[in-house]
Design brief:
Length: about 260
């Protein structure tokens, strides 16, 4: 298993720090032999991302504002240059909603912040998939994995506009899977249970959410970022060559319960 991804090259979006799900995925892929490029959002986390990327001998660390088509195009151009014109897989772990919109009522979400959440959390996958398509086509296919959450299917208190954004993301996965499948590019999502990440800390009542999760999930245990790393490794590997348009739940079975 040490060389499961030997010779494979991928791009990881969404690493913020060592607790990020994106980093757990990246570390698992790197341990299995993959060569990885990374993006970061903003100067505040640049040094942290660069240090983590250096620990897995990354050949490329570059800034990316996923709201900018020009920036996305630049990033994938750089990736193509570093990876000899190709790309085997893409890890999309990008989401954002204003903190104040994760506290009060969803009804009170203003129009501009509604579209901001959808743009960053969902449309960014579409933009990145479109940019990745020609690079993956040169490799005879590829695989894309994004991170979603049950709040896109059911109303989760305080998840609010992020739930709407995740619902948009979920639908985008299915439509991208159809469009890109003819080029042997697979698109899947991982729906994780509560993981203590930087993003999770902005959700009001997250600790209560964790407690309820452990009580009601069939396995009665929390999940860790590394569990998502293992799931992503499967979805990105050839073992999942006929898996696309699918959401893989990594939540101790919580999604299967009615209460």
């Amino acid at each position: 298993m040490a060389s499961f991804f030997a010779g494979k090259q991928g791009l990881v979006l969404g690493v913020a720090n060592k607790r990020s799900i994106a980093w757990a995925i990246a570390r698992r892929l790197a341990d299995d032999g993959a060569e990885l490029a990374f993006t970061y959002q903003g100067e505040r986390i640049e040094s942290t991302v660069r240090q983590l990327a250096e620990s897995v001998s990354s050949p490329l660390v570059t800034a990316c504002d996923v709201r900018s088509d020009d920036d996305v195009a630049r990033v994938f151009s750089e990736v193509g240059e570093v990876f000899d014109g190709g790309l085997d897989f893409l890890v999309h772990s990008v989401a954002f909603a204003a903190a104040e919109d994760l506290e009060g009522r969803f009804t009170d979400t203003p129009r501009d912040r509604f579209w901001l959440a959808v743009d960053v959390s969902a449309y960014s996958l579409v933009a990145c998939a479109r940019a990745a398509e020609p690079l993956m086509e040169t490799r005879g296919g590829g695989s894309i994995v994004t991170m979603t959450y049950l709040g896109g299917e059911r109303a989760v208190p305080h998840y609010n506009v992020m739930g709407v954004a995740k619902a948009t993301l979920d639908a985008s996965v299915r439509y991208l899977a159809w469009d890109l499948g003819q080029k042997s590019i697979r698109v899947n999502a991982i729906s994780a249970g509560p993981v203590r990440t930087l993003a999770a800390r902005s959700i009001t009542g997250f600790t209560t959410m964790e407690e309820m999760f452990e009580q009601r999930a069939p396995l009665h245990r929390q999940i860790e970022a590394d569990d998502c790393g293992a799931a992503a490794a499967y979805l990105l590997s050839n073992d999942a060559k006929n898996v696309t348009g699918t959401t893989l739940y990594v939540d101790s079975g919580y999604h299967a319960m009615g209460m």
